[in-house]
Specification:
Order of helices and strands: EEEEEHHEHHH
Number of strands: 6
Distance between the termini: 32 Å
Strand content: 15-25%
Strand order of the largest sheet: 1-2-3
Helix content: 40-55%
Bound molecules: zinc ion
Radius of gyration: 24 Å
Shape: elongated
């Protein structure tokens, strides 16, 4: 940290304590060159929406990552325009329900709901990775479940968006 007195970039921390009810750390520093003492604050910079993975790792939500995941499962079966609309719908639905943090499972479930609307083959392909299918019987189970349950409403196309697409940031 550059000294506000002499401009030297050589200080030591003489005191360090929580501030703002634990949301920040206040550090008292002393310049080694001129002896001036000054204070710095360290704060956590929160991205708008966090995704917590099963491992506990937390990352900023990325619509592009959602889109990449869906495009990878689609392998050209779904037009990019439809995938982009689906990724936007995933983000919109998540932000409606989760203010700061969402689990990767919840993101995956929203992706599944969208893919199910668009293409059953891609849906099963994505589900096989997402639900960690172990063998052919898992596919059969998923397909029979798909056949039995009613087709949900078309979230991506018919549901009126609460915000204009792309306006979520
Ligand atoms: Zn100094």
């Amino acid at each position: 940290m550059r000294c506000p007195g002499c401009g030297a970039d050589d200080d030591r921390v003489v005191d360090s304590r929580p501030a703002s009810a634990g949301d920040a750390i206040r550090r008292r520093r002393e310049c080694r060159a001129c002896g001036l003492r000054f204070t710095t604050f360290e704060r956590i910079e929160l991205p708008e929406l966090l995704v917590r993975k099963r491992s506990g790792i937390v990352r900023a939500f990325s619509r592009q990552k959602v889109l990449d995941g869906m495009a990878g499962a689609a392998k050209g079966r779904i037009p990019m325009e439809a995938l982009e609309a689906a990724a936007a719908a995933v983000e919109r639905l998540i932000r409606d329900e989760h203010e700061h943090e969402v689990s990767s499972e919840q993101v995956g479930l929203q992706v599944l709901a969208q893919l199910r609307e668009l293409d059953p083959v891609v849906y099963v392909r994505f589900a096989s990775v997402y639900r960690d299918f172990q063998g052919p019987e898992d596919f059969e189970q998923e397909l029979s479940r798909l056949a039995k349950s009613p087709v949900p409403r078309r979230l991506a196309k018919d549901a009126p968006p609460k915000r204009p697409p792309g306006d979520a940031a």
